[in-house]
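As a warm-up, study this chain.
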Amino acid sequence: MLYTSQALIAPEVVFARQRRAFLAAPMPSEEDRLRWLDALRDVLASNQPALIEAIAADFGQRSADETLLAEIMPSLHGIRYACRRLRRWMKPSRRQVGLAFQPASARVIYQPLGVVGIIVPWNYPLYLAIGPLVDALAAGNRVMLKMSESTPATGQLLKALLAQIFPEDQVAVVLGGVEVGRAFARLPFDHLLFTGATSVGRDVMHAAAENLTPVTLELGGKSPAIVSASVPLEEAAERIAFGKSMNAGQTCVAPDYVLVPRDRIEGFVAAYREVVQRFYPRLTDNPDYTAIINTRQQARLQGYLDDAQARGARIVPLFAEEQQRRMPHCLLLEVNDQMRVMHEEIFGPLLPIVPYGELDEALAYVNARPRPLALYYFGHVRSEQQRVLEMTHSGGVCLNDTLLHVAQDDLPFGGIGPSGMGHYHGHEGFLTFSKAKAVFIKQRFNAARLIYPPYGKWWQKLIYALFIR
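Now compare it with the structure written out below.
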């Protein structure tokens, strides 16, 4: 196995090496960047079984198909997308120069920022490392990845694989626990991207502020799904269940609660139960059902259940069995805002159902809470779809689906407010990790001399009359 123990290197030592290397070659060519991306694609494609095995080892049980669909496939697609568009992204863009400033020209050039830090969470330890890594490399940067201590096997494997194709002063993987993570966040990166909990995001942003390091925060929050009064319940239930059951709900854009018309709740519960039990006929020894990452997270989820039940919620378990950390999928009815499950991100297979009357009531419920990372609306009436889009704020939206907006390389991914700031993926990722440098160019003739002091000349008055109006 490749994911055996390796020596830990202090983050500040790696950072200093990368900084020196960047200063020696601050503008990598298109050929260099394509070579990096091609090598990354090849090493991922040729080590798929090892990656599946490492992630499964970290989770205790991780569906191999979920790793293929949600980690390996989008990583490879993202690399391919960037390679095909890199030349266009790197090309300087021409900009207009006002008549008063002619003759001159203007353009924007896109320069690498320098050394980029990426803090990777445990829930998708491959894709949430490779996705921003691809964007940062496409932009020409040096990159340091801090892997989660909750996924040691994946961290060790990715460290070994990337060391095969990149020198440490180009791409480096940093391993270690909480203290290493804190030291990592305090480094004077040229940009820092963090994916994880909102509470930790505040600490990361505070640490970055000491160096005025710009940050992209990909957080989470409580992403709602709204079921309309007319959408077929079987259709909505199936698509919501797919988004909630993927990775056992341990997804930052998983539906966190569902708003359902009061008179459709029982029908939705029946349809949802049928779908989940069709997806997973059993829990015991089912290779398709992913475990909760560790006992600490399982205890947190069980605490949500116990608290909700003590405060009056009706728990509807969809399975009677439980095996190790394969936590049964549960619906929660008759919930209220005093329950922890209704104001903390769930990140697991628990799904509260909230009743509503008219669509405006559902939108008001969403808008009264912190802005989510994703919002899902199920309904085919175009005017209602447009109303949801215009009257709510969220990082992204799916109409009649869940999760899949994240897999679109041509769509930016990012939160808003408590669910994050900044974007990456595709062209937006290239721009996030680039400096768009404004360049104004003038040659020998200098018409601007007409506005140099001393002031009060007749031609200056004419210029004011022509251009200040």
